[in-house]
């Protein structure tokens, strides 16, 4: 699906939600800012970066002026920018809390990259801060906004697969830069688990619409490897859901890119492989009739997120992946690390309620 | 790959090894006996069954006489049959030990269907009995004889994938006959684990050529379901191998047919899907160069097994999947059930030796 | 899908149709005779062969006696065999006419391997002979009996693909034995065209349910190659159907096994790849909703043919692929060779009628 | 492969080749201009359009000023723009000749979209004009610049497939806007053939490195359909190459998107499906060892073209797909239309020389 930026929409920006993009790394540059150009309800109104020159280059390239570029120190100057209604935080995990709290104080709505923080405590504090300030907080779980992941969830929820028995998900990739912040415990809060393993955790919960009751995990951290002095290389974890449903998950920074999701039921199964890239998701739904790979219109995952949150800002409704959804993954990840440390099963609160941590505004799926 | 029986070979049977097939269920009828017709070194010389009429029908169909059909009571009459050098035991698991011991006493070599027994203790007794009697014992692990599984193992062992980090394997299928002996603890020794989950366990050990050091498992047994009064419906288990390598496995009698094996390494990966059917195995080896699905000549898995054991009988060498290999899976399955019962990790002896439980005669792979 | 012969059915043979298999080559030995064991309505009652010893081996293997084996000279002795109601002719193409006429004279129904003869004239004579004798004649087009090919046809005929515009089909394989009768013009009537290209021709007509109005063809015959002294190596042909629909087809004895069918419509498409093997057909139906690979129960193509013709014998109805269907392919193949020889388009009679050359008894598709 | 524009390169533009993009339709907006941002050796220096406002929007969006936007009338003002060394003509086919000649007169090098013109005569005139003016002319055949198409060609040229016997290629899509210029004979020079069928024609010639000796074609033009009053809906054509190699091709504006290439040889085959999209090409090379899908680094097809021509401008060498390559496709397409009109085979000059119409500068393939 070719999805390159369209030319700027001629519609008045005044009706769209202006975002300040906070942090100008690869994700912002290659995915988020280009995606904003495909958005119906959102646009990039400002950039916040520690590298002024880079910011100005971006500004010129994306139809902004130098006045739209802010340093981290000047972050609070955004308060005067009425056209900036939301910030999109794309910073190292450990900075999410601080910038969320600073944004909330200015009355800006916060879209925050996953993981929401580096642990459940910080994540909860972010939710509290946004509630107090009366702003919305959304965790940027792009895979809860694609038609493929929704079709997988619908196959499960509709009963088309019969009772679900087992799930299996893998998200692995090679991280080979020993200096990457993603390998520093202080900045990242963990290794592959909060970075890529979180996709498996999050999507397993999403397709089941339920919460795990217990977790068991084991990890491998080869400390002699310069990359893994502070964080794990791999984690394998098992999640126990209500009714004896079990999900096996694996994540690693030491194995070639693999992203899968498999849901096995009495009467059918779902396979996504690849399950988590920005583009090219492949979904197969197997039932007694055969194997179906549904077709969907082209879309941009980041564009869908930006639009969803913009619509929430207009409607005042809680986003589908609200802050609490991000907190819950931290609660479980904290338990995963605890289990790996103790070698024991860790109990979780579970829940019989459907989607207990998700908001009221359901995502709009792309239409042709 | 069409693989129907060839016409009977004109070579003198005297040079081939005559087998008595013990038990005439679906597997014997549809796979093993037809496979014998494709064999170079083996042929079916006698049938042992509790249903005389059925046995005679088979005998007529497969070029034997009524005199080649024996009841279980007459099993010992095979002793006088010099042309019967081996028995192939295709009975319910709980009968494996008895018939192995009776065959050994007669000096017949024993090829025994997997699982070797219903627990490690019985399996060990079978090894002892055969040793004592000076006959060979082979566990019929057909997946250790296919070119696809060997290519997967070779990809791992050659280093082509870099260091292996994680493995994942699933073997599930729906068992819907509540009266099946496979659902009776006494006959089967367990539910899907010793029947189909054993493939995942066995093949993960085979491709790594190593032994697990610990296991954690959880199972689900919905006793209200008439099928699962005695045995589990599903088991999820995690195997810890040397060097932090972890395998996640799942098996079930409650989910649609799924058979997979995935090996993830630093520089490549292996995917088999399907991984365990009698025909149509699909292997993909991914490295930086791309994805390769190797081609192999047509073959019959049961024919390969029959030939391998026949060659061992001629050479006197221990078969590749000798009795000890079958015992080891029982040791691990016993630990899996213990872990599921206690909720605790169970330690295993592990081993730094390569292929510690396999024989000296390597399988011959089929050639075009 | 493993499909090995089942054990002989305990039902009385008296209700089933007894076939004499005429010709004991690879196809008879590996496919047809084993398939008869899976049949509901048919069984093998006699064998006709030029190699007595081979025949007796077969007889023993397949539960017949030496008295059930006939030489070609003794063919007419089948007349006295009331249990032999039909013959299945599996001889070199050039012998089809003679044996059909001899069988018809004996009042035996005739199932004849494709191609029906070596040219349209002989094929027509066979139809006439069977009509005159009051016996049924069926061309053994196995691909008109599979659920996959019917699902492809249904996708076309139901309008699910919108108006069909183009078709494309390939059937190629390497024939490397220069002494094979398939490479002798006298025996085969041509090269790859009547042997494998006929599948493309036949299936394109089948899925459209229409007849071509013109044909253009080009062939390649490298006479320096010992294999192609008498027959072509490759043929490319274009078939013009009503309403401007065009099918491109290719066949070869010089290229690696390739068997495909593609039907392209305004709103969807059908792809079969592989399209023509005995097992493992893969069908994909693409519409705006996505790509569907339907599932079907296991079956044996030759078993389905044997059953269909047996049912026609019982019902007295014309088989779906009656003699006329085989004649029509010869009419078109004769035109293909003429076009290749002259370099000109050759007009055909065409037809606006649906399925003008097919019988009244539709095949029963396998059920689970 | 996500491939969104990178941020502008900080390298001095003075070393890169500045292009004027002539024509601002969908292809320029969504593919070419964004691709220029990924280019090492090229950048967009000016825009030429009939819609001033649209041009200024683009200019702002892509870091140009209003002064960089020219109307068609002002095209010659580019002469004074020394930084504009080349023009990229992305206009309706019938305007290619005029703008190429006008650009050549100004001494600007010309990269021209395919098809080069609307017939061979105009295409030849363009080659002459550029030669006379001493500027380079490149036909924008993006599929001769991808690693997948080169790997397909290499498989053929290396002999890895054995002698090639047959080829088959399809390029179809639905054109449903009856007002599109692509459906006007005057502007387009034909229907799907010069627009999408040309890919099949061009790539078949590319992988063989040879030229056809004859062509046969049939077309369908349902004039009652408002879309096909002037041009054909579908064309099927057969190309005869040296040594009896035949390619079957089909193209249509009336069938769902299909893009394939198949090359069948004695010892292997190549399949590309899809074969011609901007992204997501899938190549499979089958040999006796198995099926290989090679991996390649991410790239942008238009970026590769822009870079290749920029390098030719710097080196003075003829581009790989020089004007003559574009002329040759027109010669063949003229013959295809003649064959379809007359119902006769049309002879072509053919050539025993390898790549007789390609330039001396080979494309650089993307590296990781």
DSSP summary: helix tally of chain A = 9
User: If classified by CATH, what would the architecture of the largest domain in chain A be?
Assistant: 2-Layer Sandwich
Shape descriptor of chain A reads: globular
Which oligomeric state applies?
homotetramer
Strand content bin of chain A: 15-25%
As a percent range, the share of helical residues of chain A equals 25-40%
Largest interface by Cβ-Cβ < 8 Å:
A-B, 40 and 40 residues
Q: From the alpha-carbon coordinates, what is the Rg of chain A to the nearest angstrom?
A: 20 Å
Instruction: Please state the average pLDDT score of chain A.
Output: 94
CATH class of the largest domain in chain A: Alpha Beta
Order of helices and strands of chain A: EHEHEEHEHEHEHHEEEEEEEHHE
- Structural class label of chain A: alpha/beta
Q: What characterizes the major β-sheet of chain A? A: 9 strands, mixed
Number of beta-strand segments of chain A: 15
CATH topology of the largest domain in chain A: Dihydrodipicolinate Reductase, domain 2
Q: Distance between the terminal alpha carbons of chain A, to the nearest Å? A: 13 Å
CATH superfamily of the largest domain in chain A: Dihydrodipicolinate Reductase, domain 2
- Poorly predicted residue ranges of chain A: 1-11
Q: Can you give keywords for this protein?
A:
homotetramer; 368 residues; alpha/beta; Rossmann fold; 2 domains; six-stranded parallel beta sheet; 9 helices; 24% strand
